[in-house]
Automatic annotation (TrEMBL):
<protein>
    <submittedName>
        <fullName>Multidrug ABC transporter ATP-binding protein</fullName>
    </submittedName>
</protein>
<keyword id="KW-0547">Nucleotide-binding</keyword>
<dbReference type="InterPro" id="IPR003439">
    <property type="entry name" value="ABC_transporter-like_ATP-bd"/>
</dbReference>
<dbReference type="GO" id="GO:0005524">
    <property type="term" value="F:ATP binding"/>
</dbReference>
<feature type="domain" description="ABC transporter">
    <location>
        <begin position="2"/>
        <end position="228"/>
    </location>
</feature>
<dbReference type="GO" id="GO:0016887">
    <property type="term" value="F:ATP hydrolysis activity"/>
</dbReference>
<comment type="similarity">
    <text>Belongs to the ABC transporter superfamily.</text>
</comment>
<keyword id="KW-0067">ATP-binding</keyword>
<dbReference type="Pfam" id="PF00005">
    <property type="entry name" value="ABC_tran"/>
</dbReference>
<keyword id="KW-0813">Transport</keyword>
<dbReference type="InterPro" id="IPR027417">
    <property type="entry name" value="P-loop_NTPase"/>
</dbReference>
<dbReference type="InterPro" id="IPR003593">
    <property type="entry name" value="AAA+_ATPase"/>
</dbReference>
Amino acid sequence: MIEFSHVSKTYRGVRALDDVSFTVEPGCVTGFLGPNGAGKSTALRVLSGLSRPTAGSATVLGRPYAELDCPAYHVGSLLDAGAQHPGRTGREVLTLGAMVLGLPRSRVGEVLDRVGLTGKESRRRIAGYSLGMRQRLGIGHALLGRPRVLILDEPANGLDPQGIRWMRGLLREMAAAGCSVLLSSHLLHEVEQVADRIVMIGRGRVLTEGTVAELNQGRSLEQTFLELTADADRSAA
């Protein structure tokens, strides 16, 4: 379970998050939507223990991320697919991750198979990877410890249609196994295809949340998103 409880974050007098509260239940894929600068990345950094909230709390499985015993066993995260050493191969990256977690080498092969990076692709240096391959590797790294929570920031960037379909199936499979999935993305149509619930954020505040059907009410998710974020911009002007 993921829970944001009245989280605010201020940087040098600028409020990036303003009293954000929502939950992601086990077995649920929650789409986290908002325009650039809305506060999505800040919220994910607070949740992942990379940034401390000014007020409120963000917890994973009932505890702050930093207080979890061996967090990577419980939480898999992909916040930046480019944050990988370009001189290492995909297999080397996952092998190092497995060593840190005390996992057997066999787990590396399992994950490479699951994300579709096998054969020559697993032995290629990351400098030669496409963005889609880097995304697959980042997702693979997040899955190493068999997490109960997944935190993904724009995981579909660079994926081709087959890759997006694969990712959609993976997220539904993880949710079916009881995982809590928080998915931040600009691809509204894809989020609409895979998410159980939606949280929309604008100007650092939660604008609305609910199932896709509850939010749309006869409109497309895109229309709902554009109307709500435009209203937030007008209110802040």
